[in-house]
C-alpha cells in the first residue's frame, strides 16, 4: 500500500504535540493498538492547536484564525498539518462535523467570556470544550454496544477531565483573565472574584475546592460504567486516563488545595503503578491481532 508521506508527517506532528503537552493522555494512548493511536493524537493535536490560537495573541487575531480553521474543516482541505490529520481522522472514523463546530464555539467563548455565573453556564461551555471530545473519542475507541448507548458516559468523563484541569489550573487561568469556578459557588463559600484574585489558600478557598472536587468525583463515578462498554483493546487506555486524571484530585488535596504556587502533578511512581498493569494486559490482548480492514495505521 502506498504511503501518503505528507499525511504521515501531519499525524507525527499531532503525536509530538500530544507527547509534549498532554503527558497523561499520551501515556494512556500507548495502551491502544497501533491503528487507533494516530486518530487519538490527531484529536488531541487539533484541540491543542485551537486552544493555542485562543491563548496566544490578541482576541481579533484569534477570532480570525478560528474562522479560517472552521472554513478548512467545512471545506475538507487544509495546509495546516494538524488540521489535515484531523480531517483524515474524521473521515476514517465517521466523526460528525457538528462536534468540531461545537468545539470551536467554546473556543470562541474564551475570547469574550471570563466568568461563569452558574454551573449550568459552565456546562454549556464544557459541552464544546470537553463533552464533544469524549463523543469523538467513542468513535475511535469503539464500543461493544451502539455508540449512542456509550455516549452519556463519554460526556461525563469528558466533563470530569475538564473540571480536573480547571481545578489544577486556577492560578494559570487567573493569569489569562478567566475563572472557571462558577460565581455562585464562590459566593456560597464566602468568596468573590476579588478574593480569588488575592490567591490566598484560606479556609473559604479550601472549602470551595473540596466542594468542586466532590462534584468532579461524582462525574468520574457516573462515567465509570462506560469503560466496560468499550471494545477490549480500548479499555486499558481509558481506565489509565481515568485513574491518572482522578489522581490529580488526590494530589490537590495532598497539596492542601494550594493550586497557586505550583502546578500539581501525579508523580512518576504512581503513573507507572497505574499504567504498568494496563501495558501488560494491552500487549497480551493485541498479540497476534491484526487491525480490521480499512483501519490501517496512516
What features would you describe in this structure?
This protein is mostly helical and 298 residues long. The chain has one domain: Farnesyl Diphosphate Synthase (Orthogonal Bundle). Helix content is 72%, strand content 0%. Helix 2 packs antiparallel against helix 13 (232-254) and helix 4 runs antiparallel to helix 6 (97-112). The longest helix is centred in the middle third of the chain and has 23 residues, at 119-141. The protein is globular and about 60 Å long. The chain starts with a helix and ends in a 12-residue tail after the last helix. The model has no long low-confidence stretch (mean pLDDT 92).
Features:
298 residues, globular, Farnesyl Diphosphate Synthase, 72% helix
Shape: globular
The stretches of 5 or more residues where confidence is low (pLDDT under 50) are none
By CATH, the architecture is named Orthogonal Bundle
Portion in helices: over 70%
Tell me the number of strands.
0
Radius of gyration: 19 Å
CATH homologous superfamily annotation? Farnesyl Diphosphate Synthase
Distance between the ends = 11 Å
What class would the helix/strand composition place it in? Answer: mainly alpha
Q: Sketch the major β-sheet.
A: none
Q: Strand fraction band?
A: under 5%
H-E string: HHHHHHHHHHHHHH
Q: Indicate how many domains the architecture comprises.
A: 1
**In the CATH scheme, what's the topology name?**
Farnesyl Diphosphate Synthase
The tally of helices reads 14
The CATH class designation is Mainly Alpha
The multimeric state of the shown protein is single chain
- Average predicted confidence as pLDDT: 92
Amino acid at each position: 500500500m502506498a504511503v501518503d508521506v505528507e499525511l504521515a508527517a501531519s499525524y507525527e506532528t499531532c503525536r509530538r504535540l500530544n507527547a509534549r503537552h498532554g503527558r497523561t493522555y499520551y501515556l494512556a494512548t500507548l495502551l491502544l493498538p497501533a491503528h487507533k493511536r494516530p486518530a487519538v493524537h490527531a484529536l488531541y493535536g487539533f484541540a491543542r492547536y485551537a486552544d493555542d490560537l485562543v491563548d496566544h495573541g490578541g482576541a481579533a487575531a484569534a477570532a480570525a484564525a478560528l474562522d479560517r480553521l472552521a472554513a478548512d474543516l467545512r471545506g475538507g482541505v487544509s495546509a495546516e498539518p494538524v488540521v489535515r490529520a484531523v480531517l483524515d481522522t474524521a473521515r476514517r472514523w465517521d466523526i460528525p462535523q457538528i462536534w468540531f463546530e461545537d468545539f470551536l464555539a467554546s473556543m470562541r467563548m474564551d475570547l469574550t467570556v471570563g466568568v461563569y455565573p452558574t454551573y449550568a453556564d459552565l456546562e454549556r461551555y464544557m459541552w464544546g470544550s470537553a463533552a464533544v471530545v469524549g463523543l469523538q473519542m467513542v468513535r475511535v475507541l469503539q464500543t461493544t454496544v451502539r455508540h449512542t448507548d456509550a455516549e452519556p458516559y463519554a460526556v461525563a468523563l469528558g466533563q470530569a477531565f475538564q473540571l480536573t484541569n480547571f481545578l489544577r489550573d486556577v492560578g494559570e487561568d487567573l493569569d489569562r483573565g478567566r475563572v472557571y469556578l462558577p460565581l455562585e459557588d464562590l459566593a456560597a463559600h464566602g468568596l468573590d472574584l476579588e478574593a480569588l484574585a488575592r490567591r490566598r489558600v484560606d479556609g473559604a478557598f479550601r472549602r470551595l475546592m473540596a466542594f468542586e472536587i466532590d462534584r468532579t468525583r461524582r462525574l468520574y463515578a457516573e462515567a465509570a460504567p462506560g469503560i466496560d462498554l468499550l471494545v477490549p483493546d480500548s479499555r486499558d487506555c481509558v481506565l489509565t486516563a481515568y485513574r491518572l486524571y482522578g489522581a490529580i484530585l488526590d494530589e490537590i488535596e495532598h497539596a492542601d488545595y494550594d493550586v497557586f504556587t505550583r502546578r500539581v502533578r501525579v508523580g512518576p511512581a504512581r503513573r507507572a503503578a497505574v499504567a504498568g498493569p494496563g501495558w501488560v494486559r494491552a500487549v497480551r490482548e493485541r498479540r497476534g491481532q491484526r487491525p480490521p480492514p480499512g483501519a490501517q495505521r496512516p
